[in-house]
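Predict the assembly for these three chains.
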Amino acid sequence: MTLTTSAVLVPLLPFLGAVAGLLLGRSAPGFVRPLAVLPTLAAAALAVSVAVEQGGGPATDVATRLTPTGSIPIDLALHIDGFAALIAVLVGVVASCVQIYSTGYLRDDPRYPSYAALVSLFTSAMLLVVYTGDLMVLLVGWEVMGICSYFLVGHYWETKAARAASLKAFLVTKLGDVPFLFGIFALAADAGTFRITGILGHVTSGGLDHPTLIALLLLAGAAGKSAQFPLHTWLPDAMAGPTPVSALIHAATMVAAGVYVVARLLPVFAASAAALVVLAVMAAITMVGSGLAALAQDDIKRVLAYSTVGQLGYMMGALAVGDRGAAVFHLLSHGVFKALLFLGAGVIIHAAGTNSLAAMSRMSGLSRRIPDAYWTVTVALLALAAIPPFAGFFSKEAVLGAAEHAASGGAHGVPGAAGWTVLVSGLLTALLTAAYAARLWLLAFRGKGAEVPDHGRQPVVMNAMLWVLFVPTVALGLTGPYLPQWFDGRSLNPTLTTSVLGTGAALAGGLVAYAAWRHTSALAARAPLGAVAAAPDAAPGLAEELAIESHAPAYGGVAGAPDPADPGRLLLGPLHRHAAVGFHLDAVYSALFVRPVRAAATLVRFLDREVVDTYVRGAGAAPRWLGAAVRRAQTGNVQTYLGALLAGSLVLAVAAVLVATGTGA
Amino acid sequence: MTLAATAAGHGFLSPTGVEIAFLLVGIATLGAAVVTVTTRQLVHAALWLVVTLGGVAVEYLLLTAEFIAWVQVLIYVGSVVVLLLFGLMLTKAPIGRSPDADSGNRWAALIVAVAAAGALVWVVVDAFRATWIDLDGAVQGSTQSSGRTLFQYWVLPFEALSVLLLAALVGAIVLSRRAGEGKAPVAGLRNVFRTSPAPAPREDQR
Amino acid sequence: MHLAYPAVLAVLLFCTGLYGVLARRNAILVLMSVELMLNAVNLNLVAFDVWLRDTLHAGQALTLFTIAIAAAEIGIGLAIVLLVYRNRGSSDIDRLRDLAERPDGTDATDHGAQPQPDTQAEAPA
């Protein structure tokens, strides 16, 4: 099998699986699980073989033109280089893990067939985005991912939070997609082609007319998809979806698509220093803000969601300093350990019967109940906090090293300001990341109080997938020396300065969080809190749905909880209140978009009801009145008719005479 | 033209005897006509119509159209008015004053009539201000001349008119005949055997 | 003789007839008014015939025709009036309002629409 055939099959297999799953979902339920798992596994295997064949060599470009489509041709093109091959492997592996995990997680769900088919469709679209060499085809995959995300976030559509979250995710990402579309058109109009290689060739020859405008338009789309400030607000709410979906779509892959596209088109961004600075500032705000917000969240999945936002900020920061190798390295390692964290969180939620950290901190023995999740999640949290020697450390040091390189003026064409912004905010975020990771771990696994209730054994497939992902979480960092040949060739090894600074910040953050926890954990016993959804025999997905549904009534909101024993409350001080609600960005959006739209809708309704309808009613009423008046004249009395007729003819005759003699008008 | 030549010899302020007679008879005719359309006694209206039509006949005589005048007397005064009187009787018109002889739109009718009269008089006077009829020549409408023209030049319309009159005769008979009269004996028998004088259904009358 | 005399007299007679047609309630009186209007036209025809000295005497011939047609008209008209009277029990023109719209059977249908007993009384005789 040639490289091209394998590469074509990689997105095609999950797509066929999705179609077959949708068609057979009701009629042949026995086929649903194989149809969900096997194509994805095969796609993952093929992606690995493609990566092996590609082997970090020169990029492979294959294109075919189905039909002429207008002035600028659209090609079905493949562009497989080191980035694409490795990200495809990541997508295939994580998607396979998630599909297998879901068979246990949603084993009793009546909508499992459509769920599995949508996950397959999503996987296919993501692989298409990764492999394609044409921006239009990329856009197709991009939008398919968006709609799959919408459906999957709303999987528990019986709950109000899930309905609202799915709509919000769709609308906010669309808010970015519209500028993205314009950006693609502007780029293609400038370059004369939708092919990425053609565009990049055009950029290197210096032919781009409006690099800043195009870069900013594309950036809006990437920010929407990758949940960067100010379009990040959908991601924490999207945690109302099932945990495997959060792991696959909202942690490992789809949110990375924005980063991937920026990495692909980095020369376009690099052509404009202003765009790089904007990118750096955006990444910095996202990193620090999400770190603060994550410290205040009560829902374990929302903590992870804000952490995802922050890690995506790191990737964007790496891109802002012009090092896409570091960005994609971090993308890979983050995809692995964040998928592991989410899948572990699904196990934790099932075992604890709640998604609230405040409730978990009041139950003991959770770590003994789920030892597999305990160990893997612990290591993944260490990776998240960038503690050596786990994967997160190496990738994050690569980012910080690139930022330091740019700040010192070593990177060509990258403003030093961008480098400094990313470096400083990256170090600050390293501290915050370690703090919220430590808080999560301490609250979830070091709770004191009643023994955790028994919610049954965890399905084997779920624990197995945790260990599958555990391997790269530990070991991916060791591949750092071999990766540069797959990427741009720049070294990804950690430098001493940033290693010391970053690890120091992480250790400091962890220690501060531990100290705060020691201080506040004594309070926990005095402030009883918590609601546990006990469903021992049901599927884990059901427990999660109940937990999501009961969080707002039990704790007064989907995000925070009034828990005085929360170390995050102590650490953030007065900021906690704002951080818990995402720094009121939703309120800002509400004021900026929702309320004007509502007001406009009210105005339109008023105009329609009162103004337009008045004309309509008037148009109806005037003939009615006229008809009534005319009807009154229709007395049936012939003499009246005749009199009117004669009077009229008399007037006409007089007028005719006057006109004829010229004496009248 | 002769009219233009003779026009110079006449004037409004020197009316001839014929003109004075025409005027007086015309006033009487008009008065009778006005009484005809305003009187509240229906039979009187018919009688005043006789006066009006007779006055018009006299005017025809003054215009030297004697044959027309006699025809007018014969047909209008003799037959039409009699027919109208029969009509009044057959429709059981009240004898004596009937207060509702005029309908409600009397004033509108008056306005229309007066306006029409004003407009027409104005137009007619304006048009024929200086036009005179020469009555001194040969008699225009003697029986001889009328008969000659009628049977020389107007024979075909005359005969067509006779057909029209026949059609009118037949039509009047058909209309005024009782519907279902052919079945009248049967209907009568049916009614004889009825105990109560119930009105015949309308379908029978059709 | 001045042409204005017969012309004006004809106009006034015509308008008198016009008033009668519009104002009278009894159908036979309306027919009388129609006769007045016809006579006014006849007068005009005769006067203009005399004035023009037409060799064909078209005006007088037409007058004769008009008189004949008027006689026919009065015959037909009276027949119609009699028929109406028989069916409706009234020959009042302004009560023959079947053509008027009757939304809910108000004043327009007061007398004209309902069958009169006297026509029925006549019928079986």
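Confidence is low (pLDDT under 50) at residues 107-125 of chain C. Chain C touches chain A at residues 18, 21-23, 93-94, 96-101, 108 (CB under 8 Å).
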